[in-house]
Amino acid sequence: MAYSEARALLVSGGWVPRVNPECRANLVGPNAGEFCAAAPPPVFCGICADVPELQACSSDARCLMRFSHPLSPTDLEIRAYGEIEYWAETGADAGLQVSTWERVPFE
Fold first, then answer.
1. What is the pLDDT of residue 97?
2. Superkingdom of this entry's organism (predicted)?
């Protein structure tokens, strides 16, 4: 399933992105401020604002997202495969696809 479609279902069901304040540093490194000051800034510099549930992405195109729900004692963790900049694509050919999901303890 395309990540954007899974995300839409979760949000419509009351799940809320679990924001990670270290998202940008996790994506571009400890010098994120300096790196992202370039004009135009690289796509990874703004992706955390577009996908606030993003926790991290690895260099082999695996991404981790988290959602919380006010009625759930656990978070929902989504693992996706593909390039994060394609997070909004839909359909079977979308560039970011859900691989697995599971409920995990709130951190």
1. 98
2. Bacteria
